[in-house]
Specification:
The protein is α+β, with helices and mostly antiparallel strands. The protein is built from 13 helices and 26 strands. Strand 1 and strand 2 form a beta hairpin. Helix 11 packs across helix 12. The radius of gyration is 30 Å and the shape is globular.
């Protein structure tokens, strides 16, 4: 695994994290204070209303709007058999009752947040289920042998014993020490790493229970980790050399957090004291700007075109100015090999998820195709987010999927252009001129003003006075009314108004 450095740029309104390997930025993470969601937070709630007709209850957790708890999200969940009815909510909760609840969906519009009483706490490699007694394993860990090995190791570390069903586990003493689900990160974890995660999660739950006993309803008992804290939990590993942060306050807070939960990462924390902003010094700002661009230059002279749509993301590979030194096939092959690494890096940088289509330059040789595919899979193997590559299709495209973990970088930092409404292009000035001429003719058939005044952008007015002046004069003569022009600098190229005077 290549050596890496992690840079944290902190401000009260925003935290930005860059993961740098061999001088190149591999990952960018951004979290904004005002946009931080509530999912994962645990509250001490108070039941304010039970609605038997909707099999739901409204819970006050200290927010502006009461949150929403459905009967299916109560601890115990749906029955094992589909023909067994749920116990009605009015028989499980009552008004005035206090419940420990977790947010599973943020508030949207007029709807409050959705809650569950089935609390789960995520760690680096494990998810802790304090109200359950079983060991589960992520479905993405497909090897039966590995699943059995991991289950046996977890049983030894937690003291949970399997029951006859195999996946369930009971406790030797008969109480509930809490169950665990192994995440995909646990595939190659050592016993020491698993033990650290188990201890961290159990300490977190003990703190939640302690606060619940001492706090009034509406209290936040547990907040999901901030981005800076998740750096220690999720991003730092054996290959991490330093974790540089430019805030003394946050550095001290991270050290306190790390000493309690991630002692191995504390020694890597380093306070950046330089005068230049940390992202400027290491060239992260330029990399951030490039990560928002449609075109990505390759060192060889080739380039990628990245287009993100609602349904999927397409990446087109082009040779550009790269002509190669031997023959055309080698030029294409080398460009595609370089593009394979660049594509994997762009997926991480931009956090692109869902369906991804890569259009490599057509290769005639089968061995070249397989080599490019192998390089792509090798580079994608470094990704923390699970990615599946399907190989080349009959049309020569590579189909892949990448799990959506959060909004893409472009969706987080940008919004659709108000001029083109996200199309990426606007009408030409000549097209707008012809729209105006048609609109004037349409208005002239309905109304009889003394004069038509056109208010449009400077480029459109200039074209009407110059190249389209003959057509404008002809229309004025045809309708028998004068047409005047007025340039408005604030109008975008497609905007115009026709004023009847």
């Amino acid at each position: 695994m290549p050596a890496q450095d992690i840079l944290i740029n902190w401000s009260p309104q925003e935290t930005r994290v860059a993961v740098v390997e061999n001088g190149a930025v591999q990952e960018l993470h951004i979290e904004r204070t005002l946009e931080r969601g509530l999912v994962g937070n645990v509250y001490l709630g108070k039941v304010v209303r039970v609605l038997p007709g909707m099999q739901s209850a409204f819970i006050d957790i200290g927010l502006e709007r009461a949150a929403f708890l459905h009967v299916a999200d109560l601890h115990g969940g749906p029955p094992v058999r589909s023909d067994t009815p749920l116990v009605p909510i009015e028989r499980q909760v009552f008004e005035g009752q206090t419940l420990t609840v977790q947010v599973i969906k943020d508030a949207i519009g007029t709807k409050g947040a959705r809650l569950s009483t089935q609390v789960s706490i995520a760690g680096r490699m494990l998810v802790f289920l304090p109200q359950d007694n079983h060991i589960g394993i992520s479905q993405k860990i497909g090897s039966p042998e590995l699943r059995e090995q991991l289950r046996a190791r977890m049983q030894a570390l937690t003291g949970l014993q399997p029951d006859k069903a195999g996946d369930k586990a009971g406790d030797r003493n008969g109480d509930k020490p809490g169950g665990f689900i192994l995440r995909t990160n646990a595939e190659e974890a050592t016993d020491a790493e698993l033990a650290d995660d188990i201890a961290y999660l159990r300490r977190a739950w003990a703190l939640i229970r302690e606060r619940a006993q001492k706090s009034p309803p509406g209290t936040l008992l547990h907040q999901d980790l901030s981005l800076a804290e998740r750096v220690l939990r999720d991003l730092a590993n054996e290959a991490t050399q330093t974790i540089r942060i430019d805030s003394r306050l946050q550095c001290d807070a991270l050290k306190a957090f790390g000493e309690t939960y991630m002692p191995g990462a504390v020694a890597k924390l380093d306070l950046y004291r330089g005068e230049r902003p940390i992202f400027d010094l290491f060239g992260i700002e330029e990399e951030l700007a490039r990560a928002l661009a449609r075109r990505v230059e390759l060192k060889s002279g080739g380039y990628l075109i990245v287009d993100q749509t609602e349904a999927l993301t397409t990446i087109d590979v082009n040779t550009g100015g790269f002509v190669g030194a031997r023959n055309f096939d080698d030029t294409i092959f080398k460009t595609n090999l370089e593009a394979a690494g660049a594509i994997a890096r762009q997926l991480r940088l931009r956090n692109l998820g869902g369906i991804i289509i890569a259009d490599f330059i057509d290769m005639t040789r089968e061995d070249h195709q397989q080599a490019v595919l192998a390089e792509l899979r090798k580079q994608l193997a470094r990704d923390r987010t699970r990615t599946t590559v399907s190989g080349f299709t009959q049309l020569g495209l590579v189909e892949m999927t990448r799990k959506r973990t959060r909004e893409s970088l472009a969706h987080m930092l940008c919004e659709p252009c108000p001029t083109c409404q996200g199309r990426g292009q606007v009408k030409t000035a000549r097209s707008v001129c012809y729209d105006i001429l048609r609109e004037i003719l349409r208005e002239a058939r309905q109304f009889s003003p003394k004069e038509f005044r056109v208010v449009a952008s400077a480029a459109v007015v200039e074209m009407l006075l110059d190249e389209e002046s003959v057509h404008l004069a002809g229309l004025s003569e045809f309708i028998g009314r004068p047409i005047s022009l007025s340039a408005e600098p604030t109008m975008n190229p497609e905007q115009y108004d026709i004023v009847l005077l």
